[in-house]
Predict the 3D structure of the following.
Amino acid sequence: MGLFDKLFKRNKVQEEAKETLDKGLEKTKESFFSRITKAVAGKSVVDAEVLDELEEALIMSDVGVATTVEIIKRIENRVAKDKYLGTSDLNAILQEEMVNVLTDAPTQEYQNFDLPANKKPYVILVVGVNGVGKTTTIGKLAYNFKNSGKKVMLGAADTFRAAAVDQLSIWSQRVGVDIVKKEMGSDPASVAFDSVNSAVAKGMDVLIIDTAGRLHNKAYLMDELNKIKRVIQKVIPDAPHEVLLVLDGSTGQNAIEQAKQFTQTTDVTSLAITKLDGTAKGGVVLAIAHQFKIPVKYIGVGEQMQNLQIFNKYEFVDSLFSLK
């Protein structure tokens, strides 16, 4: 029984999703718990030494310096207020304060892939550097939206790499959704424009547009993304409705640097953090959510299409502490 279990009345599908999340975060929580256990070994009270050890454990778990300092400060305030806190209380306190630094994360119902009813098609512009799992994330998003009864279309506007268009085409076939694409080297904005027109004409519920991720020339990237947005807005004035930045969680602090670069380049509104099942660096989710104040909307915890999950801060923290 986790600290936040009372918040959820999960159905069978949600229970299975929680089990997948628990399994996907195994490497992170095993590494994290070994450090926490070391921090409190032989101690009976949360004192300065324990807090120093806890601070080091959090930083080593890729929670990040700024986020770690915030968590430790919150715990210090509780220690000062309550005068005496035993180390047996530390896990519960730590869980609560980790959730508190994730205040800006969305609180949507677990595993909910609903869309705003008044935005059709709902246009998602996906950004991120090559290799972070961007195309795979788009494919998994398409699967989950379709599985929840939505009509889905993909737009292959990453025309810089032939492989990107080919990969997205494979995903469209695998999931069974429409795709708009052109040959390599085509104007990305032209693909985006055709995608939006087609999505409107065919009555699609959601359009997911892939874009090129080239950070070596930020000025060019900014110009390209702005051009894509302008042509989209010729058809749907308030689109794109979401700019989703995909980050590779296994890269730890490098993911934070990528987030810095992209948030300086374009108006990112949500985040997807991938490959958390293959790393012990899952703490970076807290660092990113806290530092950028942008909702972590999706997390990838496995290779299967259903392993892209809506991020829920309570479920995430609960999984970090739910050692069997």
User: Anything to note?
Assistant: The radius of gyration is 21 Å. The beta strands are 122-127, 152-156, 178-180, 206-210, 242-248, 270-274, 296-300, 308-310. The chain has a mean pLDDT of 86.
